[in-house]
Write a structure and sequence with these properties.
This protein is mainly α. The chain has a single domain, classed as Hypothetical protein af1432, CATH 1.10.3210. Helices cover about 70% and strands about 0% of the residues. The longest helix has 24 residues.
Length: about 280
């Protein structure tokens, strides 16, 4: 298994459905300028996408006390950025069905991780820069897509046991992936977004996440905020004392308030613990 194998796997993927691209065109002038009526109609015109968006939104992790029954209601509550992320997430998941057990988590927990990363990004950064938070929360929701690509490739190879053992023992996941492939799954996510011609800035951010490059101050803030979120929530540690502490150190290096981040992270953790307890009762 090599990086070349992974690229071949990417290039063999079928195209996404038309809906994500129709919706992408609506966002061409910026999420803040989008025509809400056209957005709702574009989603509702694809009954399968609409049903799955509502299914994701009504998941316990979002914590709504009442059922969200319509796309227009969902857009009002979530905002246009997050809805775009949910549409992309569904479209990507449809093409990248994978067994995530090689990372030590089942698919339900993997899905939780993605949603927690997005929720943490939005709740943490909203007080710092709301527009940044709204733009980055959808990316946080789908940034782990490269892990699905890698999982599919691993499951077709003779590397399953070796990979699972190595992933479990590795002190640093990013270094383990890089030693194995010469790249990381976040870079793969960026390549995936490029291949499907999704949001180009998302692809650029993900490709620069684990590789040093001369970037603008704005790009660095995007990359650093993603690094904070994935440090606090990942397939190895979901808002543990250690992962929150390590994330706080990055926040401090960014010149931001680590106490604020810790407070938000603990609140998100408390919400998630309640969901897990309720699941066990069922």
């Amino acid at each position: 298994m090599t990086f070349k194998n992974i690229i071949t796997e990417l290039e063999s993927l079928p195209p996404l459905s038309n809906t994500p691209f129709i919706i992408k065109q609506l966002y061409s002038c910026g999420a803040q300028n989008i025509d809400i009526i056209k957005l709702v109609k574009a989603i509702e015109d694809d009954a399968v996408v609409a049903a799955n968006i509502l299914k994701m939104i009504n998941a316990p992790i979002y914590g709504f006390s009442r059922k969200i029954a319509s796309i227009s209601q969902a857009v009002t509550l979530f905002g246009t950025d997050e809805i775009y992320g949910l549409v992309l997430r569904y479209a990507v998941d449809e093409q990248l069905k994978a067994d995530t057990s090689i990372y030590g988590v089942d698919n339900k927990i993997f899905n939780d991780i993605c949603q927690l990363q997005s929720s943490l990004m939005l709740q943490w950064y909203a007080r710092i820069d709301l527009r940044h938070a709204q733009f980055m929360a959808p990316l946080a929701l789908i940034m782990e897509s490269g892990k699905l690509v890698l999982a599919n490739e691993i499951m077709k190879s003779n590397y399953i046991k070796k990979f699972t053992f190595g992933y479990k023992k590795a002190k640093n996941i990013i270094e383990f992936e890089h030693d194995l492939l010469g790249t990381t799954t976040y870079y793969l996510s960026g390549l995936l977004f490029e291949y499907w011609k999704l949001e180009p800035l998302y692809a650029e951010i993900l490709k620069g996440l684990d590789f040093e490059a001369n970037t603008s101050e704005k790009m660095k803030s995007y990359i650093d905020s993603l690094d904070v979120v994935r440090t606090a929530v990942n397939v190895r540690e979901i808002l543990t004392k250690k992962s929150i502490h390590e994330a706080c150190l990055i926040v401090e290096e960014m010149g931001l308030d680590p106490e604020h981040f810790e407070k938000v992270a603990l609140r998100v953790k408390e919400q998630y613990n309640k969901i897990r307890i309720n699941r066990m009762k069922k």
